[in-house]
Amino acid sequence: MSESRYDIGMKTRRSVLGDAHVDRASKNITEIDEGFQRYITENVWNGVWTSDTFTKRERSIVTIALLAGLGHEEELAMHIRATLNTGATRDDIRETLMHVAVYAGVPAANTAFRIAKQAYAEIDAASKGE
């Protein structure tokens, strides 16, 4: 029996965002967002993130650029943390945010750099056991 779109999407979602994040998000699902969560798992994480045109690293970079340019701060922080799983490096993200400055504006990039610095500080602290 082949895996469902949801199961494939959930595997991809976990591989990018990590089990801890997905478990927390899953515990917070209610009847209000249950259909939406299923939709993004089946169509974003299975449909978009499983395409073999981009690597996870490339897809991560594109996602971060779009989130930064559109000012989606919470999602941006989440995807910066996810770079630990996608292979996008800090150099990749720094360069991505420089592109955001040019193509989406300095204020958007300034906010994105602030978020990146905070996310990386949290990552560094966690790796040191703080």
UniProtKB/TrEMBL annotation:
Q: Name the Gene3D superfamilies for this protein.
A: AhpD-like
One Pfam family from the record? CMD
The answer to whether UniProt assigns keyword Metal-binding to this entry is no
The Gene Ontology terms for molecular function here are:
4-carboxymuconolactone decarboxylase activity; peroxiredoxin activity
Q: Does the keyword Lyase apply?
A: yes
Positions of the Carboxymuconolactone decarboxylase-like domain: 36-117
Identify which top EC class this enzyme belongs to. lyase
Which top-level group of life is the source organism from? Bacteria
**Keywords on record:** Lyase
EC number per UniProt: 4.1.1.44
- Record protein name field: 4-carboxymuconolactone decarboxylase
Organism in which the protein naturally occurs: Thalassospira povalilytica
Designated gene of the protein? pcaC
